Amino acid sequence: MSEPPLLVAHEGPVCTLTLNRPAALNAFTAEMHGLLRPALDAAAADPAVRVVVITGAGRGFCAGQDLADPAMQGEGVDVGAVVERFYKPLALRIRSMPVPVLAAVNGVAAGAGANLALCCDIVVATRSASFIQAFSKIGLVPDCGGTWLLPRLVGRARALGLAMTGDKLSAETAERMGLIWQCVEDAAFAAAVQALAAKLAQMPSRALAETRRLVDTSAPADLAEALSWEAQAQGELGRSHDFAEGVAAFFAKRPPQFKDR
Ligand code: T3D
User: Fold this and answer.
1) Taking the model in full, what pTM does it have?
2) What is the rounded (10 degree) CA torsion for 251, 255, 259, 260?
3) 67 lines ligand 1 (CB under 6 A)
4) Ligand 1: distance of its center to the CA of 77 in Å?
5) Which CATH number covers residue 36?
6) Which residue, judged by its Cα, is nearest atom 5 of ligand 1?
């Protein structure tokens, strides 16, 4: 029997989702989409999960849409329908998770695979990994949130440079230009991902999810609006268990036990 295109593993509070079509650099098929979103839904609904890690099997992270799919070939392909059906809900699902989502980019991330990673809250990549906005090379625009994410992460000049050229960006350069959080030596990658996931799992999930929501909605707001939204979120978080626990732990000089979702 062939391997499933998505592997789901739970280790304590960490849920790891591994894209698993290594022979095709984990390119997305309908079947993989059909497993990934429900797996994210399940992680969101499971109170035991406090962080989700998305990674790839083999030497790649994800090469984007599976171009070998016969439905992708020839003229008149309805790419928009594929984006509406799969990539849009996937990006929105990641951005609305009640827990942090960590992309562990173990190798090349191209097309929608690159933007899948950039949708995540924190992106850690091996030094040998790379990011490619491959869309322009096949006559498409960046999808899976690329046109929104890129200028916010690196500014217009770099967003257009990356998207128009489709050039390969090393993980090291991606870190330097602020596209990702961290580039880690290959030998230290697994341990670094594990340590970061463990750290995030101990953090107050609800506050982290609210932080993401505020950051994502801050761009069109003026400062006064952003200040009001912050006040509203603090008002809600201030009444939560995790805030009371955080303050109590601070004064007791002990590690906090956060549990809100
Ligand atoms: O409907 C829609 O299309 C909507 C959604 C669009 C979103 C998108 O993601 S569009 C962008 C699609 N992705 C790409 O254009 C990337 C295509 N792949 C590449 O450019 C290269 O493979 C890489 C730069 C990512 C890696 O290059 P390299 O030299 O390390 O590996 P390779 O030899 O090219 O690939 C290894 C194998 O994976 C190879 O198969 P083989 O020859 O060993 O049997 C290759 O065909 C396969 N592969 C790589 N990418 C894809 C793929 N197979 C299917 N789909 C792919 N996207």
Assistant:
1) 0.95
2) 50
3) yes
4) 18
5) 3.90.226.10
6) 65
Kindly state whether residue 156 falls inside one of the protein's structural domains. yes
Give, for all 261 residues of the chain, the pLDDT tens digit.
689 999 999 999 999 999 999 999 999 999 999 999 999 999 999 999 999 999 999 999 999 999 998 888 888 888 899 999 999 999 999 999 999 999 999 999 999 999 999 999 999 999 999 999 999 999 999 999 999 999 999 999 999 999 999 999 999 999 999 999 999 999 999 999 999 999 999 999 999 999 999 999 998 888 888 888 888 988 899 899 999 999 899 999 999 999 998
Do 114 and 64 form a contact (C-beta atoms < 8 A)? Answer: yes
- Given a contact cutoff of 8 angstroms between Cβ atoms, the answer to whether 107 and 58 are in contact is yes
Domain that holds residue 132: 6-187
From residue 200, how far is each of 14, 116, 195 by CA, in Å?
9, 20, 9
Determine the distance separating the centroid of ligand 1 and the alpha carbon of 140, expressed in angstroms: 14
Q: How far is the CA of 28 from the centre of ligand 1 (A)?
A: 10
Q: Does residue 252 belong to any structural domain of this protein? A: no
In the reported structure, the alpha carbon of residue 43 is separated from the centroid of ligand 1 by a whole-number distance in angstroms of 28
Distances (CA, A) of 47 to 59, 201, 202, 243: 32, 12, 13, 18
Ligand 1 atom at minimum distance from 134 CA: 15
Q: What letter represents residue 4's amino acid?
A: P
